UniProtKB/TrEMBL annotation:
<dbReference type="InterPro" id="IPR049326">
    <property type="entry name" value="Rhodopsin_dom_fungi"/>
</dbReference>
<feature type="transmembrane region" description="Helical">
    <location>
        <begin position="206"/>
        <end position="223"/>
    </location>
</feature>
<protein>
    <recommendedName>
        <fullName>Rhodopsin domain-containing protein</fullName>
    </recommendedName>
</protein>
<feature type="transmembrane region" description="Helical">
    <location>
        <begin position="84"/>
        <end position="106"/>
    </location>
</feature>
<feature type="transmembrane region" description="Helical">
    <location>
        <begin position="166"/>
        <end position="186"/>
    </location>
</feature>
<feature type="transmembrane region" description="Helical">
    <location>
        <begin position="52"/>
        <end position="72"/>
    </location>
</feature>
<dbReference type="Pfam" id="PF20684">
    <property type="entry name" value="Fung_rhodopsin"/>
</dbReference>
<keyword id="KW-0472">Membrane</keyword>
<feature type="domain" description="Rhodopsin">
    <location>
        <begin position="60"/>
        <end position="216"/>
    </location>
</feature>
<keyword id="KW-0812">Transmembrane</keyword>
<comment type="similarity">
    <text>Belongs to the SAT4 family.</text>
</comment>
<dbReference type="InterPro" id="IPR052337">
    <property type="entry name" value="SAT4-like"/>
</dbReference>
<dbReference type="GO" id="GO:0016020">
    <property type="term" value="C:membrane"/>
</dbReference>
<feature type="transmembrane region" description="Helical">
    <location>
        <begin position="135"/>
        <end position="154"/>
    </location>
</feature>
<keyword id="KW-1133">Transmembrane helix</keyword>
Length: 224
């Protein structure tokens, strides 16, 4: 949890350093302001900050997931089936984390400015990036749902009343808030992928994505 807190603090610090440039990109693509002479430099800086913050957020979220798994292992490690399922879950959750990182458009975040301008802003490229984004949301939700199985399976094998089992299961299912935030983060209706009628094309709102990544990070960390 100390590592998760350090990563959350790093995310906030990076936001203070780079969000001005990220917001400038958003205002320019929305036609609110005209790009200035230094826009390309600031765009490169904004994309760099965006990429670093996304990596930090994903790392932090998966650190919290592993914290959950380590905690639940100690509750049922003496049960063979439970222990085997736990190792399967660890492999799947780590694989989901690797997939979430792999879905990031590294060439459009850390590539040359001209590549970003000419290749990453086309309709097909934006649609492909959003498809990756949706896949990352799915693997995030799958890993959360898998983690929820552990406390519920433990509770329903204990000798307590059904009412107590339901109450405690409801508390553990608060992880569902994390899933809800993840779904909102990737929702096409939420603002990450929107149509600009004036120029008849779609763009990605990176500020929206960063905001909901941070919300997800905070929710999952404080639930633990």
């Amino acid at each position: 949890m100390a590592l998760a807190l350090a990563l959350q603090t790093a995310f906030a610090a990076l936001g203070q350093a780079y969000l001005g440039d990220v917001y400038l990109m958003t205002r320019v693509q929305n036609g609110v302001v005209a790009p200035g002479a230094d826009f390309l430099d600031r765009m490169k800086r904004g994309l760099l900050g965006d990429g670093i913050m996304l990596l930090v957020a994903i790392a932090g979220i998966w650190v919290v997931k592993m914290n959950f798994l380590l905690f639940f292992y100690s509750l049922g490690s003496r049960i063979t089936f439970y222990r085997v399922f736990w190792w399967v879950a660890v492999v799947v959750v780590l694989g989901c984390g690797a997939a979430a990182v792999g879905m990031l458009p590294f060439d459009c975040l850390f590539g040359e400015v001209m590549h970003v301008v000419t290749q990453c802003s086309t309709e097909g490229s934006v649609a492909a990036i959003y498809t990756r984004y949706k896949v990352s949301v799915v693997v995030d939700c799958v890993s959360d749902a898998l983690i929820i199985c552990f406390p519920i399976s433990i509770l329903f094998n204990t000798r307590i009343s059904l009412r107590q089992k339901i109450i405690l299961s409801s508390i553990f299912c608060l992880v569902g808030f994390t899933i809800a935030v993840t779904i909102v983060r990737g929702s096409i209706f939420g603002g990450v992928y929107k149509e600009l009628d004036k120029i008849d094309r779609k763009v990605l709102d990176t500020a929206w994505a960063l905001f909901w990544f941070y919300i997800e990070f905070m929710v999952c960390k404080y639930l633990l």
